[in-house]
Design a protein that fits this description.
alpha+beta; five-stranded mixed β-sheet
């Protein structure tokens, strides 16, 4: 018997309640809001629990910048970026690597390019990668909570070489967890990704 509300929807609701409690500056002109259907939230829940269980049983460490976030919440947030983006781009979500976890290297493959999808729980957050999970794919993509309930926002993307040219070191208040980060305003619009990668 299914729970009445998917955990992933509740997780996203909690983030949005925190983010939009205060006045916000104007959003990116090119950000794309994606309404996550209820069936997709249930899919994300299923994958998150399976991924979490497989990592736990296999002894895979699940470290992140925010030590207050549980391993399950980290899996939920990752999948809130990966699954909607795969749907938007019209590519299959690889349940094999997706459930096992990818070591933070390749989340999706699109037009022959590897994609690393980063879900940042802060609406105006950066595209960032830590030393434990460096940016190794061809393209990095930033996804955040959307402005409306049950939505996520595709903020933009950047080629690997571009990222490493402009990224700056930040620690977000945790000196022991430095990351390389790029402000979302420096990203390319997500709408340009298919054309630049040669997809008609």
């Amino acid at each position: 018997m299914q729970r009445s509300v998917p955990e992933s929807l509740g997780f996203l609701d909690n983030i949005q309640d925190r983010e939009f409690r205060r006045p916000l500056q104007d959003p990116l002109r090119w950000e794309l809001q994606f309404l996550v259907p209820l069936r997709m939230f249930w899919t994300i829940d299923e994958y998150a629990h399976l991924r979490n269980d497989r990592k736990s049983s296999g002894g895979v460490p699940d470290e992140g910048v925010n030590a207050k976030t549980t391993p399950l919440e980290k899996n939920l947030s990752g999948l809130l970026g990966e699954v909607p983006l795969a749907d938007h781009l019209g590519i299959p979500f690889d349940t094999v690597s997706g459930l096992q976890g990818d070591g933070g290297v390749v989340d999706l493959i699109f037009a022959g390019r590897t994609l690393q999808v980063k879900f940042n729980g802060y609406y105006f957050g950066d595209l960032y990668f830590g030393k434990d999970r460096p940016f190794l794919a061809d393209v990095g993509i930033l996804v955040t909570p959307g402005r409306e309930r049950a939505t996520v926002a595709f903020k933009g993307w950047m080629f690997n070489e571009e990222f490493h040219e402009v990224a700056v070191s930040k620690n977000y208040g945790i000196p022991s967890k430095p990351v390389q980060a790029v402000d979302q305003h420096k990203l390319r619009p997500i709408q340009d990704l298919p054309g630049i990668l040669g997809v008609q």
